[in-house]
Write a structure and sequence with these properties.
The protein is built from 15 helices and 7 strands. Helix 4 links the parallel strand 2 and strand 3. With 384 residues, the chain is α/β, with parallel strands linked by helices. The radius of gyration is 23 Å and the shape is elongated. The protein folds into 2 domains: 228 residues, 3-Layer(aba) Sandwich (Rossmann fold); 141 residues, no CATH class. 54% of the residues lie in helices and 13% in strands. A 7-stranded mixed beta sheet has the order 3-2-1-4-5-7-6, sandwiched between helices.
Length: 384
Amino acid sequence: MQDQAAFWDRASRKYAASPVKDGAAYERKLSLTRRLLEPEMTVLELGCGTGTTAIHHAPFVKTIHAVDLSSKMIDIAQHRAREGDARNITFECKPVEALALRDQSQDVVMAHSILHLVPDPAHLISQAYRWLRPGGLFISNTSCIGEVSPWMRGIILLGQAIRQVPFLSVFDRDQLLRFMAQSGFQIEEEMRIKFGTFLIARKPGSHRAQAGVSSRASRGSRSRKPPETRRRSTDTDVKNTGRMTSNSVRLIESYHRETEELVMVRKITGVVALVMVTGCGLGQPIQAADNANAHYKACIIDQVPLYSARERIGEAAPQKTEEVTEFAVSKCMAQEDAYVAAMTAVAMAMTGDLVSPEKFLEDEEATMRHDLHAMAARLVDRSL
């Protein structure tokens, strides 16, 4: 735990100075949260960092108790709260695992970018469930490290060995949803974006005091859809907030029509987000790899109509998937080589002198090319 605190203490200044990477998506999350807040609510924020989210929500609730294990983060958060005159926020420097709160003492628990940083996320979710009153809200934003490819996890492990990446729990979205269900939460809202999963979950029941009821009545009743009919936000809500080409947008939309397609998008962009938030200075080489991956996919997709024209057929028949894939891969070798080179640069930036480029390519080049060819086959099959 001391190592974790020391890591975030070192990263605090750079973390505080970094702008929000996707401002539109962040504002959307704030909006989804704010519509559920009430003036009488008590809020607990786990892993508050430099206090940005707590300060945004402070005017809409009674109190916020914000906790983080980094004393440097807490110092920055307290300074920002004073500057923003957010007097209803209290800050505490403590690991979230060490919190001892009364059961059913909170109306809202927020856990943004923290569940993947603790050794036992399922236990922390269960703790949040106990701390919440019936009807209380658990609001979280989480990176799903389990959706990163095994060889990228290897790079992360090397980064941890040289103290450039913090501890990370490995789980995917389905496991996260199981953790929520096993604790008793009901999911009311889900917003999938390329850097993770934003969830609003509720503890069943109702506890609202008369003060809360009269407070809502004084403002007029708020129309809410029941959980099962409430519209869920998806990447298509936020796809235009990133700097994506039209080909990238088309690929993302295709991915959401069939989850197993375009897995590489989530593998790479998940790591981009992970490294950016840790302040490791690796955003540029990983972004270059992400761009190379996007160029390869666009090249593959563009080859399908070219194959049809070359063979002088109206459209390539589905049974020609293997033949079309072989043609597409042969035409996109330059993009494939660029991607392999970009990922080698990421590995070198992460590991320094611990691994040579030759050793990395010896261990990983065949796997990378195999993954790219498998993805190419899926894209061709989708396009036929």
